[in-house]
Amino acid sequence: MRIDVVTLFPAIFDSYLTQSLLHKAIVRGLVAIERHDLRAWAEDSPHHKVDDKPFGGGPGMLIQVEPTVACVREVETMHPTPARRILLTPQGKRFDQRLAEDLAGSDRLLLLCGRYEGFDQRVQDILEPEEISVGDFVLNGGEVAAMTIIDAVVRLLPGVLGDENSSRDDSFSRGNRLLEFPQYTRPREFEGHSVPEVLLSGDHAAIAAWRAEQTQLRTQARRQDLLGEEPNG
Ligand code: SAM
Asked: Which amino acids does the record list as binding S-adenosyl-L-methionine (predicted)?
């Protein structure tokens, strides 16, 4: 997979791209992530200004349509694979595990990160991206939202996780769309809290049954809205 990220603050991704699972996935060639500084497409070249005041008044600035459209069109020509265009906005479709699985099936994503009061509406009208929100709250910019999407999508790519089953059992995932069961590691006992005996029994059938039951109980207690969902939908 290739992911192009259009942003005014490419350095925000510096540490994120050089750590842990994502870094390994990049080094192993499972994903390529390219950042593009929108200011490089500024018409006002000495100041690299890409924002202006909203018509009709109001606080804040908007990212202008000309540099954004020019940037996206040029970035798309940098690689032959057609890109799935995504614009991060709190007004978009809510991101969830199903959408992450859907995006993980794409060969190329192009993520447009907003700043200030967001983009001039004509960016959406002309480029017709999918608009995605990471939740009903407002961030300062789309970069953290883009990282959220990259993180959730890349871990689903074949070969990224050491054990493919670990993403199948994850909460909300294809296995059952419910919450994952509780997990424990050493020590067996800490401050009077013991690991459930069944997990120490070595009886794989009993462990699987306990985990299935815990998944149901936990989902019932915390997220009843997930019960009755189509597991593979
Ligand atoms: N004025 C905009 C509104 O009310 O819809 C919010 C602008 S926000 C301060 C700046 C940028 O952060 C947005 O253009 C978007 O790219 C990003 N952003 C903020 N909240 C987000 C969310 N929940 N999901 C995805 N992107 C978000």
From this structure: 114, 134-139
Was domain 2-156 assigned CATH 3.30.450.20? no
Residue from 138, 140, 144 to probe ligand 1 pocket by mutation (most atoms less than 8 Å from CB): 138
Domain boundaries, the chain: 2-156, 178-226
pLDDT digits (tens, 9 = 90+) for 36-72: 999 999 987 789 999 999 999 999 999 999 999 999 9
Label the pairing between strands 2-7 and 51-52: unpaired
Q: How many CB atoms sit inside 10 A of residue 96's CB?
A: 13
Rounded to two decimals, what is the model's pTM? 0.96
Q: What integer pLDDT is reported at residue 232 of this predicted model?
A: 65
* CATH of 178-226 among 1.10.275.10, 3.30.559.10, 1.10.1270.20, 3.40.50.1240: 1.10.1270.20
CA–centroid distance, 90 to ligand 1, in Å, is 5
CA torsion 172-166-202-220 (nearest 10°) is -10
- Which amino acid appears at position 164 of this protein? E
Residue 117 falls in the annotated catalytic set: yes
| Cα(101) to centroid(ligand 1), Å | 23
d(CA 11, CA 72): 19
Ligand 1 proximity of 114 Cβ (cutoff 6 Å): yes
Q: Whose CA is nearest to atom 22 of ligand 1?
A: 90
